[in-house]
Inverse folding.
């Protein structure tokens, strides 16, 4: 069974200006271990798709299951639980809490998972290890470069061992060299078995994924496998 | 999220904006400090007034001669001595609940002992007087029935007089001269301190009623058997009101006052004066509580205001927390705990300041400061409740945020 399964997924917004069909009948399967790039111009429905897949929103109609759980049947608490356990978010603006150091930021999802302090600390250190930032554990976000901040955010996304890493323009606020490093990190995590869904409008970024899904006007217009551009390991590890 | 961690996280958030948090707390701090200080100072003052008034003696009424009209001119109270020994005896005999009726005369005089002398107040009293005033002899002895009956020239000194005339020496069996009459000292009273009106109650000497009347004070008590005033002591507080009514009837009858003629005496209930003072102190406490409630209300609105600002400022944080798995009720409790922590810390600072102020004022005024543990607990509990009450609306707004909207906000 696929990790993500959508059937006839539809999301309609009732705005003052009228009804907007943001997503129209999307059928898509994402397998465990996929590295999927979701592309499309703004207004194509890729953000709506990401919000639905990320359990931040519920479809107007249609079906979505994540790892066997039927998402449209869940209430707000059920969605929160699923986001906490199964999904790790990475945002364009990192969204780290400025008054907490890197370690405490990484611990945040585990607080809501009810994990005790000692284990939280251990797992947060381990997650920072995976993104190569152990020596910056006590730094606050303001004391870190953009690339380092995004690594902390990725560590935070990984720390509850989610089945899906959901990244929304993760390199949008970074220079091209740092962007390459972050994409290399995603590739590395993907090789280790993490399913990655990366939303972007940037074709260069999309080329790093093994599968490309293109949205237009709320529908999937292209779904293809491709040979990803690989970031050399040395560069990714830097 | 566990409670302790929630508090730790709330403290972190509060400390991020130390100045703003302190300013927000200020309303609560001032309100609580004012309450604690005023309640303590008020209780101290009430206690002092109370003990001073009660130092007259419990369940006490005083009968004083009233105004008298002489040839068309109304003379002031006490101008004529309309009361007599017999009036006192009649009251003791005929009014229910009276345990002592102590007639006395008083005046000012100079007391001389050897080379030193001292101006003081002199009382001519009978056997009941010390009972009525609940006042004991500290050294030596009190008057006996024979001394009172004969009007012996013996004297009991107040503590202040004894100290000024004799210093460290023992005054018992020494002689003091009052208007050239040599009185033998038989006792010294226990110190009683200041009266409610700031008078030194120990600056006084006592002689038997007749000795005072005949040999020392004289002038106003020319008529045989007349006295200045009469202390009347009742067994119980409930006896006082009906007793005063009976005494009034009795004295009118004895003084042959009929119809709508004015009384030539007046009776005051001293216990009632004490109760009035206590009641006005209680009213004051109520007023303080009202002021406190208003300032806590204002403080609470301040907290609500700053929490709303905080929710708006931290919208992205809320969105992020929701994205990583916080449930709406986690967000609700986070902000609620933050508001409550803020107001409780404010309350505790207020208690500290209030206690300090209470002790400061008390030491200046020279009365005991009574910081009540109850007031402290109520104040801290109340400020916590203010936090919960006024923090709820902002917290609920935070919890109802849509995660997508919240994450998009700048």
């Amino acid at each position: 069974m696929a990790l993500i399964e959508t059937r006839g997924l539809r999301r309609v917004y009732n705005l003052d200006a009228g009804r907007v069909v943001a997503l129209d009948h999307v059928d898509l399967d994402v397998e465990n271990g996929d590295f999927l790039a979701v592309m499309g111009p703004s207004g194509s429905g890729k953000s709506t798709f990401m919000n639905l897949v990320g359990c931040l929103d519920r479809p107007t109609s249609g079906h979505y299951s994540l790892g066997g759980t039927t998402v449209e049947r869940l209430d707000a608490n059920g969605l929160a639980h699923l986001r906490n356990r199964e999904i790790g978010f990475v945002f364009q603006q990192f969204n780290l809490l400025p008054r907490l150091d890197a370690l405490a930021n990484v611990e945040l999802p585990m607080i809501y998972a009810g994990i005790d302090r000692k284990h939280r600390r251990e797992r947060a250190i381990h997650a920072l290890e995976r993104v190569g930032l152990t020596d910056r554990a006590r730094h606050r976000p303001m004391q870190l470069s953009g690339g380092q901040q995004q690594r902390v955010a990725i560590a935070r996304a990984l720390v509850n061992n989610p089945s899906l890493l959901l990244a929304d323009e993760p390199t949008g606020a970074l220079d091209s060299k740092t962007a390459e490093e972050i994409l290399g990190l995603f590739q590395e995590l993907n090789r280790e078995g993490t399913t990655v869904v990366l939303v972007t409008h940037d074709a260069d970024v999309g080329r790093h994924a093994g599968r490309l899904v293109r949205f237009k006007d709320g529908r999937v217009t292209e779904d293809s496998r491709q040979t990803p551009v690989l970031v050399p390991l040395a560069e990714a590890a830097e | 999220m566990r409670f302790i961690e929630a508090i730790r996280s709330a403290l972190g958030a509060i400390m991020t904006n130390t100045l703003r948090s302190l300013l927000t707390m200020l309303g609560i701090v001032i309100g609580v400090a004012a309450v604690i200080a005023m309640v303590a100072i008020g209780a101290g003052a009430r206690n002092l007034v109370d003990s001073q008034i009660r130092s007259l003696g419990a369940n006490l009424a005083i009968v004083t001669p009233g105004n008298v009209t002489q040839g068309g001119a109304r003379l002031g109270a006490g101008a004529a001595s309309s009361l007599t020994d017999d009036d006192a005896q009649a009251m003791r005999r005929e009014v229910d609940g009276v345990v002592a009726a102590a007639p006395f005369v008083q005046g000012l005089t100079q007391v001389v002992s050897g080379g030193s002398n001292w101006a003081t107040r002199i009382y001519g009293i009978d056997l009941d007087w010390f009972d009525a005033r609940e006042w004991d002899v500290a050294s030596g002895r009190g008057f006996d029935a024979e001394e009172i009956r004969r009007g012996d020239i013996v004297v009991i000194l107040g503590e202040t007089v004894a100290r000024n005339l004799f210093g460290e020496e023992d005054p018992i069996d020494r002689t003091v001269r009052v208007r050239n009459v040599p009185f033998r000292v038989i006792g010294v009273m226990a110190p009683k301190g200041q009266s409610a009106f700031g008078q030194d109650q120990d600056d006084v000497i006592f002689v038997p009623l007749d000795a005072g009347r005949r040999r020392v004070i004289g002038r106003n008590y020319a008529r045989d058997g007349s006295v200045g005033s009469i202390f009347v002591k009742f067994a119980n507080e409930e006896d006082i009101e009906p007793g005063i009514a009976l005494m009034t009837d009795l004295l009118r009858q004895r003084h042959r006052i009929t119809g709508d003629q004015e009384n030539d005496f007046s009776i005051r209930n001293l216990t009632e004066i004490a109760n009035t003072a206590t009641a006005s102190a209680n009213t004051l406490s109520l007023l303080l509580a009202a002021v406190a409630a208003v300032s806590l209300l204002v403080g609470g609105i301040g907290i609500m205001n700053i929490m709303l600002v905080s929710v708006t400022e931290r919208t992205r944080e809320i969105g992020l927390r929701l994205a990583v798995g916080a449930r709406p009720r986690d967000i609700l409790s986070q902000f609620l705990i933050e508001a409550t922590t803020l107001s409780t810390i404010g309350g505790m600072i207020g208690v500290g300041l209030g206690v300090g102020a209470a002790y400061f004022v008390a030491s200046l005024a020279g009365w005991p400061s009574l910081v009540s543990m109850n007031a402290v607990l109520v104040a801290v509990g109340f400020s916590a409740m203010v936090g919960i009450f006024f923090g709820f609306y902002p917290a609920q707004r935070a919890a109802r945020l849509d995660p997508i909207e919240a994450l998009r906000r700048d």
Notes: Strands of chain A lie at 4-15, 18-30, 35-39, 61-66, 69-70, 87-90, 164-168, 195-200, 211-216, 219-225. Chain A has a mean pLDDT of 92. Chain A touches chain B at residues 51, 54, 56-57, 76-77, 80-81, 83-85, 89, 91, 95, 97, 99-100, 108-109, 111-114, 117, 156, 160 (CB under 8 Å). The two ends of chain A are 36 Å apart (CA to CA).
